[in-house]
Design brief:
Nucleotidyltransferase, domain 5, 327 residues, alpha/beta
Length: 327
Amino acid sequence: MTWWRALIDAGAVAGGGGRTDEAESGATVGADLVEGSELQIHRVADRTGSPIPPAASFLNGIERWSVVAYDGVVQVVNAYVAAAVRRRDKTGVLHTTFERSRAFAIAPLDRMSPALRQALEQSAADIEAVAGELVEQPARYLEMVEATVRRGRARIERDLAEQAMNDIGPDEWLVIDGLLSRSPDVARHPRALGVIKSHGTQFLEGRGLERALTLPAGHRTSVFAVRGGHTRTEVYSWYLRLWPWEGNDLLYGLLRIEARAHADSVKRASELSRWLWAERAPLATPATRWDRLLYPLHHVEEYLKTRAPRDLQQGPRRASRLPRLAS
């Protein structure tokens, strides 16, 4: 029996809502151009030579959470975060080298009734206690819950990235789904790349922003340095378009790449972009954002989904909101 079922048996009201995806929070961060005097567009597709490096590992994570019980207006959440690093061998098969997960409850313990708090503490092995000030504001409370889950996922992804960096071979690359700059050690590594598919943070403005948002497929922007905001360590970054945006929207197929702040990153930006552009195939369907998801990262995500707790594997439970009538 799950811990939240024990809570409901103790008198809590069952819940059934949650979210499974993450989004980059909106912000404006300054950026300094480090390639050329003006942001330009560079073609990377269809160049000669093999773009695939001999060895590469891919890191991705998942997050799942759902409101499973109510103690009055207090919402108790079942949460799960996991991440894995999978290395691609010479035959193209991915093998797991590092993996970590955490299943935990989230609740404002000081706002719970004594009986249900006791039931929770006795049945749940891992509890993340949160402040109870927002309990009477359900939407803001759930935003806090989502931020708590996201921090948990970021923590294990950072730890795995640092482990992987100590394990990879001299010619091997590590590609991370998300920010390279979460870890100073990883951000400074010469063979680590961050692939960001959410675009809540704005780095460019004016003509440079227009060129980035209307970037043709198979092209990248000039490289710019990112400082401040979410970035703990300076990194170099550029935009790369995987698929044509015309007929879709400005963010369709658009990635932002992070690499270490070094002249070599500028020199190799087109070569690395050509490799990542090639990794768009096969298609990462049926993922919602398949247009911005490299297939090896999608493969890691699918692997993690199969290992998630059964009650959270398919995302939040969508119970009918129709009233239940007596027969």
